[in-house]
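Support reply, case 0932

Customer input (verbatim):
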Amino acid sequence: METGKELFESIMNSCLQKKVASLCKKLIKKCSFNSGADAENLCHLAYRLFVYGYIGETFAVCRYTHDIPFPGKGGYRVWDFILYIWGLEVFLLYKQEKHEEANARAKEIDSIRAQPVDSIFNTPEKRREFIDKLYQRVVYPDVLLQEKIEKEENERNANEYRFLALIRMVGCGATGLYPNLSAHWNELQQDIDNYVSILLKEK
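Our regenerated output:
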């Protein structure tokens, strides 16, 4: 498997978009799976590549995260972003009709989410109960961040909200773990396409 430096340099050579190049440069300089900021940059890179249609490179970023051991306590500062990357992978695998592989990755997301990591939810049963309630609280159309977008007079800032919304729309919605998002999946897919088309017009 190629190193992070090799991967990010290769992506910069393939995709000349400024936002991608900026993220790659940051990740070449530092990409630690103990850093929430680095994991966020990696997540943003995967989703920017997806928006621009670089699906092979998107999968390469996804694969780069596959063998990271979950650290337990404090790990969600990093793993929230890793799991959003995996949610994107699920989305793309379904698009390619690789259902078995997509389902396996979704189950792995759920398994990580359900691991007890602190004193409040220190048993699998308590953590399972908590995570199931969390899944139920994520609803459509709240994930679209429409109110924040509509209040923004600056289009660049509005697009930042669209991008952040896209990460949750895809990263949560595609997994099938969030009942309300699954119930509105047809609408959500149209919203995803709409947000991608708007973000593609960014300079």
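We compared this against your earlier run and they match. Two observations from our side: The chain has a mean pLDDT of 94. The chain has eleven helices and no strands. Please reopen the case if you see a mismatch on your end.
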